Every structure is written in structure tokens, then in C-alpha cells.
Amino acid sequence: MVEGRGTMSNWDEIADFVIVGSGGGSMCAALACVEMGLKPLILEKEPLVGGSTAMSGGIIWVPGNSLMLEAGVSDSPELGLKYLESLVPEQPGSTLARKKAYVETGPPMIDWLRSKGIPMVYCQGWSDYYDEKPGGQPQGRSLGMKLFDVRKLGPWKDKLRRNFLRIPVQGVEGHKLILATRTVVGMLTAIKVGYRIVKTKLLGTEYAGSGAAIQGWMLFTALKAGIDIRTDCPTVDLVVEDGKVTGVVVRQGGRDVRIGATKGVLVNAGGFARNAEMRKQFGPQPSSTEWTVANPGDTGEMLQTVMKLGAATHGLDRAIWTIASRQPNGNIGVHANELAKPHLFVVDKHGKRFTDESCSYMETGQNIYKAGAVPCWAIMDSRHRAKYSWALTPPRYTPSEWITSGYMKKAATIEHLADQCGIDKAGLAETVARFNGFVAQGRDEDFHRGERAYDRYFGDPTHKPSPTLGTVSDAPFFAVELYPGDVGTYGGLVADEFGRVLKDDGSVIEGLYATGNVTAGVTGAVYPGAGASIGASFIFGYRAARHAGGAYG
């Protein structure tokens, strides 16, 4: 913390609203500032723009949004609030006021973004993750973004962060594509995506999908609005005058620059998924930075800086877990899709199941830690490998290095597979018999797999009678070691319904706002639906900017 020198004239430069980090909520906040006639400034410490939003699946969860209504799906903010209240108890960061702010602000914010030419698509059928709860929506409340041609960015084209997966898909196309060999819809989706890839090569278009599409459109719109965005500009400290945050210190071009913020500072710098020491200090163990797919800048410095001001924190042991494996080439495989498919289950070292394999990826990660099952094992039979992809590799093809490296174990019998994995043989044999018995009777009595709409969403609709329950009985058998990977941590600074950072006594740190994964999430320890973290980043970034500009009185 840097104490102010007393007068605004000591600033090297001044903006109205300084935004630390360039994730989705930052762009949204900056656009809101422009709408109110304010001058925003976005500071990104990395050379690339977009944060973890750009590396994500690119989905925004907003109850009662207009695209749902246009698709004929009935929903409302009131139902969204009912759903959140049924899932998430009152706690710091997830007060009733914060929940109300989320569901009431989301729909008009989406309409406002659409009015600016930001094109969204409704992900119909991508169910809420707990659709059986009061207010749950089996048709889903998630929005994706239409494909973005990165050539629109001109000289900024190479500054947009993108993940390694460059397939041009939007909305729910990725899930359909996985079933290209199983369903007509999947096959037609594959043809459509293939046409785009050919078109890209012939015409020179360069489509970005998923999170890069969100951030491509947001960056394009922000640049059109004349917003000042600076990369390679880490914020190294906050300036505090008489207890109020009035600016930042930024390392720019090799020197420290003092930038004043007349209306406030918004921190949207992500969590600490890439910080081994903080993970060890706050998170469940064992843990590793090698298991995360968060962006490289997710290292926690701004969270630590704000904590030094006496900010309250909550839920620092949380992450958006997503079950992962480390492939021989060093890539992280993320397996939410595959685990819900028939002919597979997950066990601990004793050979025992401990979770509904098709439930929310975040819940599965929590269940891994509760069971002390780090690592655990995906057990599958030959039909899973024949019908479904694994780690983005098509079905019916198992790379030889998967087997020779030991990444994927293969055996003629369950007993031999258990020996290779170091799993208790008797325990695994018992689980196979019990699981296959559940499949025969059409009901998973242990974990109720397949009973939610969300469970079935990632399944195989051609597999009857259950899209997710299938016996593990046909040799050869396969196993892959799994870890609780993550796409980012999910706890941090406690903020109010306007995004203002609070102290432990509930008082406000004047001039300081926060949104995104640097905060204690409005959904607590639960992930209610696809895009909830990005939705919160957008909504509370938007509300923070509007509050700073006086829109809320």
C-alpha cells in the first residue's frame, strides 16, 4: 500500500475509473463508463488481453435473459433468485442483496450488450446443473457468443488471448460435435464446422470460438468506443489517501507510474490458481499449479495487495474444479464430457466409486477431496473407447504413446487393470458388479447418476434406456489417472451488491471495487450453471462502474 502524497497534482496521469485486469468484466465495466461519459483505463499485466475469460468455454449464465424468451423458454429473474436461494446459503459474498443484484441486473445488461452489436446465442438444452432444485431450469440459462473473426481487431489481432483449442464452434456445437459418430445432429455439426475450417483456409478468415469469441467481440467493441487498454502494465500497488483508494502504481515501460482514479479502482485480476504458495496456504491438498488451465497471469498478487488493506475474504479454499489428466505431451485433458458417457465410472484407490460421474465438474472436484481420492481413476471398457472421444481424441483411436507411456492403462481383465493402477482388486471387482447391477435395473442407487437433466446432457442420447448408465463389462478395459484440475480459484475479496470491497466489520473500502475470480463468488461453493463465474464478472463489473458513475444514487 502506498500512502498518497496529498494532492492530485502528484499523479503522472489521471483516469476516471482504473480497471486492473482485462477479463470479461473489465470490458463490460469500461463500456459502462463510456456510456456515462467517464474515461476508463484498463491495465493488463500480461502481453495478451482477455484473462481467463478468453481461455474459457465462453458461456454466460443469466436467468430470464431475452434470448431464452425469444426461443420460447419461460423464465424470470424471480425464478433465478429462487434457484440461487435453494442452492446457496447466506454467506459473505453471497448475500441476498448480491443474489438479487445478479438476477435483476443480468437481463438488462445482456440487452444493453446486444444493442452494441455483441451477438449472443442461446445454449438451449444446456441445463442448469441442479435443475431439480426449486427454480432450476432444465432448458438452461446459458448464453454463448457467435464466432468472431479476429481480423476485425487489426493490429490488436495478436494481442487476443486464446487457448490451444482453435476449433471454430459456438454455443452448444462443441457438445454436439463430440457425438459426431453417434448422432445425426453431431454429424451435421461436424460438417458445418469442417466447412468453416475450409472456408478459413480459402478466404483467410480466422474464426475464434468459445471464450476467445466473447473477448474478441468485447475487445472489438471496446476499441471502437476508444477505450484505453494497455498490456504489459502490471499494477504493483494501490494508492490510499485518508483511507480511500485514489489510484494505482503501475510498472510501465520499466518505470513506476502513478495513475489517479477520480471515480475509483476496479480489481478484476483473477484468483491465484497459478500461485503454488497461495494454493498450499488456502486450498485443499494435495494441489498443484500443473493441474490448472487458468491463464498464466492468475497468480494472486492483486488479491494479496487488497488483503493488506484489511479487506475481508471468504472461500479461499474454493476453485472451479474440472477433472483433469496430464497427457504424455504435457497437455492437460479436461474430462467433464467423457465422464458422463456410458461404460465408464470413477473410483478411488480402494476401487470404490465416490461420486455421480455426470454431475457438475465443480461438485466432482469437491467430492474427490471429500473422499481423499487424489488421484482417482476413470475405469472404462472397450465400448467407451470405440464410441466416445477422450482428451479431444476421436473414438476408435488410442494413440500408441498413451499406452506405452502409461498414461492410459490397458488390460484384458479388471483384475489385471487394478494391478497396473495400484487399485485394490477386490474393491474394484465388487464395484464393477455393483455398478453393472445398477445399470441392469436402470437406477444408480448409490449416487443417482442420470436423474438430473444436466446428468443426461453430456450423455449419449442414442444409448438406451439411459444416456449415461452403461455396463463396464467388455474387454479390453482401460484406466486413466485423474486429478482435481481447475479453471481458476473461486474465493477471495468480499464485495457488496455494488462490487465495493468490504472489511471484516462490513465497512466499505472507499474507492475500491472488485469483480470476477478475485472475489468471493455470489454462488458460494456451488456452480449453478454453465457460465456462472463469467456472468458474475460481467454483472458486478457493470454494476461497479455504474455505481462509481453515480447511477445507483
Structural features, described:
The chain is an alpha+beta fold. It has two domains: 12-144 and 228-318 and 489-553, FAD/NAD(P)-binding domain; 323-484, Flavocytochrome C3, Chain A, domain 1, CATH 3.90.700. It is built from 18 helices and 24 strands. Strands 1, 2, 3, 9, 10, 11, 12, 23 and 24 form a nine-stranded mixed beta sheet that branches. The chain has a four-stranded antiparallel beta sheet with strand order 17-18-20-19. Strands 4-6-5 form a three-stranded antiparallel beta sheet. Strand 15 and strand 16 (332-334) form a beta hairpin.
Measured distance between first and last alpha carbons? 29 Å
Gross morphology is globular
Q: CATH H-level name of the largest domain... which superfamily?
A: FAD/NAD(P)-binding domain
Question: What's the average pLDDT?
Answer: 95
Classified by CATH, the class of the largest domain is: Alpha Beta
- The percent range for helix content is 25-40%
CATH topology call of the largest domain = FAD/NAD(P)-binding domain
Q: Pick out the low-confidence regions.
A: none
Number of strands: 24
CATH architecture of the largest domain: 3-Layer(bba) Sandwich
Q: Strand percentage, roughly?
A: 15-25%
| Sheet with most strands | 9 strands, mixed
Radius of gyration: 24 Å
Entry summary:
By secondary structure, the chain is of the alpha+beta class. The chain is built from 18 helices and 24 strands. Strand 2 (13-20), helix 1 and strand 3 (40-43) form a beta-alpha-beta unit.
